[in-house]
Design goal:
The protein has 2 domains: 138 residues, Nucleotidyltransferase, domain 5 (2-Layer Sandwich); 169 residues, Nucleotidyltransferase, domain 5 (2-Layer Sandwich), CATH 3.30.420.40. It is an alpha/beta fold and 341 residues long. The chain contains 10 helices and 10 strands. Helices cover 39% and strands 18% of the residues. The radius of gyration is 20 Å and the shape is globular. The strands form 2 sheets. The protein has a 5-stranded mixed beta sheet with strand order 3-2-1-4-5, with helices on both faces.
Length: 341
């Protein structure tokens, strides 16, 4: 039985987890920075890096304590070393390399996007990896993949501009809502009319598996403030119901694009299953829309949708069993291994 200590610091969450056998989560601890960055309506890299420095050791200690293990019980150390904010990545990578060196344990470098795909296997022993279409939907990533196994992943398409979660944050800012925008808009959408406003669905041509969400964001801006934002300075002229209707209509457009891209990918790959990870995979509207989809759609448990270290520790177990280890020269890298530099 392999017990892996995982670390995560790609953006604004400092996380540590202990996972056994690649799927049994013994602990998962996340120190969130949402309140720190809320007033900026987005992550400030320098502030995030400083918070990681403060949080990394307490988070590791809490993960070990919650799992009822000590450092000597750890068989390997894993860290998400790509992609992400370079300053944030460096904190986690440095901590992981130090632990691996001090303990004399193997080190695994993990791609954050790959880990989001793997998150569906957490607490799901014997998960059947078959040819599947995988999607990662989050604030920083919107990509679609062919997945033939936990280590066999091929990029099929990605966003050409905003990630879908980023679009949610920007639309929330346009509507004068809080941060992060995803959960707020999802809540409002439950009370709104998804057909109130017909926002555009950008499909980027027949057969394309790439995404674009900047157009819908601009359409919301013009709808709220008038053409080029010149008629109204903000959303204060709108009623609560009008804001809910805009939120529901925006969400319906995003879900429509995601669903249609998923259909295209299934047809192209002839896969029989879809897996969806990342923060936006927690969206209630998306989960409801795909409940009766043409193929089975597997989501991770809600607690593993947002950034966490358990998904990295679980994936590390698979990589280590296949002989994929990292050296102490492991670098922090800002781009995904599935995308060009």
């Amino acid at each position: 039985m392999a017990t892996v200590l995982g670390l995560e610091s790609t953006c604004d969450e400092t996380a540590a987890a202990v996972v056994a056998d690649g799927c049994r989560v013994r602990s998962s601890v996340v120190a969130s920075q949402v309140e720190i960055h809320a007033k900026y309506r987005g992550v400030v890299p320098e502030i995030a890096s400083r918070a990681h420095i403060e949080n990394v050791l307490p988070v590791v200690k809490e993960a070990l304590s919650s799992a009822a293990v000590e450092l000597r019980d750890i068989d390997a150390v894993a860290v998400t070393n790509r992609p992400g904010l370079i300053g944030s990545l460096l904190i986690g990578v440095t901590a992981a390399k130090t632990l691996a060196w001090a303990l004399g344990r193997p080190l695994a470098g993990i791609d954050h996007v790959h880990a989001h795909l793997y998150s569906v296997a957490l607490e799901n022993p014997g998960f059947a990896w078959m040819p599947a279409v995988g999607m990662v939907l989050s604030g920083g990533h919107t990509s679609i993949y062919r997945v033939d196994g936990p280590l066999a992943v091929q990029l099929l398409g990605s966003t050409t501009d905003d990630a879908v979660g980023e679009a949610y944050d920007k639309v929330a800012a346009i509507l004068g809502l809080g941060y992060p925008g995803g959960p707020i808009i999802d809540d409002l959408a439950q009370r709104g009319d998804p057909q109130a406003v017909r926002f555009p669905r950008t499909m980027l041509g027949r057969g394309s598996l790439d995404f674009s969400f900047s157009g819908i964001k601009t359409a919301v801006l013009y709808h709220v403030r008038g053409y080029q934002g010149r008629q109204h300075p903000d959303a204060s002229h709108l009623s609560e119901q009008q804001i809910a209707d805009i939120a529901a209509s925006f969400q319906a457009a995003c879900i429509d694009v995601i669903t249609r891209k998923l259909q295209r990918a299934l047809k192209k790959t002839r896969a029989k299953m879809a897996i969806i990870g990342g923060g936006v995979s927690a969206n209630r509207g998306l989960r409801a829309a795909l409940a009766q989809f043409q193929a089975p759609v597997v989501f991770p448990d809600l607690k593993y949708t947002t950034d966490n270290a358990a998904m990295s520790a679980g994936l590390a177990d698979v990589k280590l069993r296949s002989g994929q280890t990292a050296g102490l020269d492991l670098d922090a890298v800002t781009y995904s291994q599935f995308q060009p530099a």
